[in-house]
Predict the structure.
Amino acid sequence: MDVEDLLREGMERFTEEVPVPRGLVHKAARARRRRMTIRAAMAAGTAAVTAAAVIAVTGAGTGAGTGGVTNARTTAYVIGRVENALAAENFVIQGQATGADAFSVHGHRVRDSNEPTSSWTYRNLWRTEEFTGISCGHARPNGVCTNHGGSEPYVAQGTARIGGRLLSVYVTYYNHRYSLSPRGHFHLKACSKTAQLGLGGPAVTIPDWPAFIKAILGCQHATVTGHARISGVQTIVISGLIDIPLSKGYARMVKEPRVRVRYTLDVDSATYLPVRIYSSTETYGGAAGPTVSAYVTNVRWLPPTKANIAKALVTIPPATSG
Amino acid sequence: MVRAQRIEDLEQLLAQRGQALLRTAVLLTGSIEAGEDLLQSAIERLLRQGRRLEGDPEGYLRRTLSNLATDGYRRQGRWRRRLLILQAEADAPADATAEVDLRDALMRLLVQLPPQQRTVLVLRYWEQLSGAETAKLLGCSEDAVKSAASRGLRLLRELAGSWQYAGAHQQT
């Protein structure tokens, strides 16, 4: 069959379930009134347009498909501002992530804390450090927890300046070893499965994550869902849900045909820079039953002072062998 | 009073022609939700310009749908990346459902096409408009319509070609 015929047939099939639109005229009239209210507020200088739009959207309790135009436009506006803010930022970014896994063992739900992770990023410099966590405590040279002694650095990964060259480095503190490699070019294809799966993990383990977040926000999964106050900062909440079918090989390996990734970005309503990121990956079946792996990453945007930039480099501790 | 009458007229128009308009909007955007949003935007514009109701409101809505789809989505600039991904991720069909799969893949690709190409293909192959009618509706030259249609179809054919090749390759 010719492509043109297939296209016609496809269009027919694609839209055959389309319902008769109901109430669209009234929704449009309401949306128009709302927009006029926002414009009036802007003209009067009584409120920031984004806050007004966000409040209008959340106050109306709109959802996908019904929230319609105002929500879509608010989302587009906010995401545009976030993208610009991320593109223009010149900060040392500090991230602190904590997380937990929930799964089933012999029918019992188990919740297990993930190791806290911290990161420092400045342009092409980055350092991610994973800690053992309080429950693990001091780690033996084989990496096994002693369950006492408090949390300590476990592994570090990132860039290091060695002999004037910028290299990639991986340090394992528990056995006092490190390895060097040429600095790779980090590039995640926007909206790719890899990028979407990465989004379900702690945001700090991704080098150049502002570029990563920016790329993900361009994938149309995100929606402005409200506002929140975090550590005294008024934020706009952007949420997204992605259902990701896994490739056959990967699905076979993890015994899951698909995963669901949820994320929430709280962006400072003044600077539009993210201050907190929630991310989770859910699976539905497999031996451990439904699993949820969730992370919270708190983000600070620090001035690029010498001291702060230095924190974005991995330092190889003394008495560590390569 | 006039406004209430205008809304009532529009309700009546949508009761008769709403589904056809929504189907076009869905094709222009790729999903029912986005299609509803697009149609709602077009209605909002029509409400803003009430006098046009006396003329050809359906024609105005169709023009607005096409223009909004072209303008709004052009600004997003996302299609290029998504198109590449879609091409890279297209899986080859392995059985007799290949044609159905290809048809679905074509629809997915249609949604990812640059806005003008997608709009032109929807107007030409869904709305059955001629090249001249499409050009008039979009406010561009007939040559621009031909060029957009041929570029859009070429991309769809490329997908179909690689699909068939991949299918044949997998079966060997």
